[in-house]
Amino acid sequence: MIQIENLTKKFGDITVLDRVTMTLDAGKIYGFVGRNGSGKTMLMKHILGFVSPTSGYVKVDGKEIGRELDMPQNIGAIIETPGFLPEYSAFKNLKFLAMIRGVISDQEIKDTIRLVGLDPDSKKHVGKFSLGMRQRLGIAQALMENPDILLLDEPLSGLDNEGVDEMRRLLLKQKQQGKLIVIASHSREDIGILCDEIFRFDKGKVIGHEVSKK
Known about the structure:
Oligomer: single chain
Distance between the termini: 22 Å
Order of helices and strands: EEEHEEEHHHEHEHEE
Number of domains: 2
Largest sheet: 6 strands, mixed
Number of helices: 6
Radius of gyration: 17 Å
């Protein structure tokens, strides 16, 4: 569970998050929608512990980020454009990242790469990947340590129609496995198909909350 209470973030006189309050539960997909700069990505950065709030708090599984917990370990994320080392293969890129915590095996990395439709044994450098292939690899990075929570900023951008359908099915399967998933997207279709609840942002505020009837 993620609990966000009166979360406010200011940079000088500029308020980028304004008293945001919400509770997000496991086994659901939540959509964050709003124009660029409306606060969606900034809220995700607070949940990850990348940014400290001016006031209010974020709790993940009952622990306050920045006080009881520096950064939650059970979250996989794509925030903005996934960054990879262009001179290495998909497997080597994820292997380098996996070595930070050392909790998964090479086989688990390869299985995750296959899960998103890429070849884990390919020697092709990521620098030669198409935008869609890089996006698939970003999703694999978020998934590879089997986190309980996924924070995905525009996860389906750059994918062709087939890729979008594949990744939608993958995310719905992750939801069925009990994960809490948050998606920020400009695509009304993605939000409509995937999300159980939708939060609408404008100028750092939540201006609407809808529960899907599907």
